[in-house]
Every structure is written in structure tokens, then in C-alpha cells.
Write a structure and sequence with these properties.
It is built from 3 helices and 9 strands, in the order E-E-E-E-E-E-H-H-H-E-E-E. The protein is mainly β and 188 residues long. Strands 1, 4, 7, 8 and 9 form a 5-stranded mixed sheet that branches. The radius of gyration is 18 Å and the shape is globular.
């Protein structure tokens, strides 16, 4: 009986422009629609340099806290909130989505946006969250946030801009590394 040699690990990239992007992929709602906001930020590596080739996917409830549960989230019709989007960062590492402020999925819960990150050098995608900066009582009671050191907690909370949009930067490594979630071993 011969011993099998394991297959070497692979990173999640390169990304192929003909396979992943689709029309209006970063628009969960059409720009300028009632209630729409811009979610933007920059993806940084451990040295603090912007990463030019990451892809972010987001999932979130609508403004009332309802999770979209119908098929067709890839269809962008210009007025229907889809709950899901994908954005490739530009050469400067900047991403942008047009979306809505997510509502709480249960009374008193802190609203958040779920994020998956794909980037060079990663063996697997990374998962994290973006919390809205308002409602400090809900943020303090959130099970995930309350389990973190206060300094680490801030890596998951977006900044509200003057125009109502959100800015949230993602750091893959380093002193102010974004908190990432580990679902390994979680029951299916």
C-alpha cells in the first residue's frame, strides 16, 4: 500500500474578470433610490498598504430587518432590494456598495452586514461583520461584540459620514486587524 501525497494548498485567487463580475453587482439597491446609502472602505494588508485585487461579498437584511428569502438576488431591476452584493476593489483598494441601513433582525438587536472577503494569499475566504455605529445599547448587548476586547470591537463598527453613508476599512493583518469569524466546526 502506497502513501498518498497531499495536494498543496492554493490561495483563493486569481480572480477571472469574465467569471465573477456581473452587471451592477455592488448595487443591492439602485443609487439614488429612497433610503439608499453608500457603503465604502479600503482593504489593507498587514503593512498598511491597500490591496488592489480583493473581492468582498455582503449579505444583509432590509431596512425593516427582514432577510430577503426569494430567489433572484443576481437580478438588478433598479428598484428591488436584493440583500446580497459583490464588489471588487479598485487599484487603490477601495470598494463601494449601494445598499440600505440594515434593520435589526429581532427587537433590540444590533443591525449588521455580513461580509466575506476573498483576496490573494488567503487559503480560504474570511468572514466578518459591519455594525452600524448608532444605538450604543444594542451594540453593548450584542453577543459577538460584547465577547471582544473593546479595542478589537471597534474594527467591526462603521463610521457614519455626513451624507448618511458608511465607511468601514478592512485590515487583513497587523495591529488593528479586523476581527474575523470562525465557523469551522459549526453545526450545519
Amino acid at each position: 500500500m502506497s502513501k498518498l501525497t497531499p495536494t498543496p494548498g492554493q490561495t483563493v485567487g486569481p480572480f477571472y474578470g469574465y467569471a465573477l463580475p456581473f452587471n451592477k453587482d455592488n448595487e443591492l439597491l439602485a443609487p439614488g433610490s429612497a433610503g439608499s446609502i453608500r457603503l465604502q472602505g479600503t482593504v489593507y494588508d498587514g503593512a498598511g498598504d491597500a490591496i488592489p485585487d480583493a473581492i468582498l461579498e455582503i449579505w444583509q437584511p432590509d431596512a425593516e430587518g427582514k432577510v430577503v428569502q426569494r430567489t433572484g438576488s443576481l437580478v438588478r431591476d433598479g428598484y428591488t432590494f436584493t440583500g446580497w452584493g459583490r464588489a471588487a476593489v479598485g487599484n487603490s483598494g477601495v470598494f463601494t456598495f449601494t445598499t440600505v441601513n440594515p434593520g435589526p433582525t429581532s427587537p433590540g438587536a444590533a443591525p449588521f452586514i455580513s461580509v466575506a472577503v476573498f483576496a490573494r494569499g488567503l487559503m480560504n475566504r474570511l468572514f466578518t461583520r459591519i455594525y452600524l455605529p448608532e444605538n450604543e445599547q444594542a451594540l453593548a448587548a450584542d453577543p459577538l461584540l460584547s465577547s471582544l476586547d473593546p479595542k478589537r470591537r471597534s474594527t467591526l463598527i462603521a463610521r457614519r459620514e455626513g451624507d448618511g453613508g458608511l465607511t468601514w476599512d478592512l485590515r487583513l493583518q497587523g495591529g488593528n486587524e479586523t476581527v474575523f469569524l470562525d465557523f469551522e466546526g459549526a453545526s450545519q
